[in-house]
Fold this sequence. Notes:
The protein has one helix at 2-13, and strands at 20-29, 32-42, 45-53, 57-64, 76-81, 85-89, 94-99. The termini are far apart. It has a 4-stranded antiparallel beta sheet with strand order 1-2-3-6, with no helix packed on it. A 3-stranded antiparallel beta sheet has the order 5-4-7, with no helix packed on it. The protein has a domain at 18-99: Sandwich (Immunoglobulin-like). By secondary structure, it is mainly beta. The chain contains 1 helix and 7 strands, in the order αβββββββ. Strand 2 (32-42) and strand 3 form a beta hairpin. It comes from Novilysobacter erysipheiresistens.
Amino acid sequence: MKLMALLAFALSLFGVDIGGSSFVTRTVVDGAEVLHSRATSEAGSARFECVRSASGQCHYTVYPRTCEADDCEPLKRFALANGDSRQVPGLHRFQLCVSADGDTPGPDCEPAQPIATR
């Protein structure tokens, strides 16, 4: 077991991701489910599934995992209808923001702040 952990750590130093990640996003407002989404990532490919969204669509914004809030562009942006799924090859080490509306969140998944003008 220790040998496997050491091997996985050594490979991660060279950018090889042998593990997988799972993302489940559920938003409940006043007792009603507004959003339910699932995503999995394994071996450089990611699968996104919009289980249910009150708006009829799940809006996905995918950022690099090492994203800096000041200087970060999304890797991908797309929407899926209720019940749809999408396989995206070539995605490695990412962070995910999902919402029921089409707003583009920042890498912290918070709504983008308007630029103050004077």
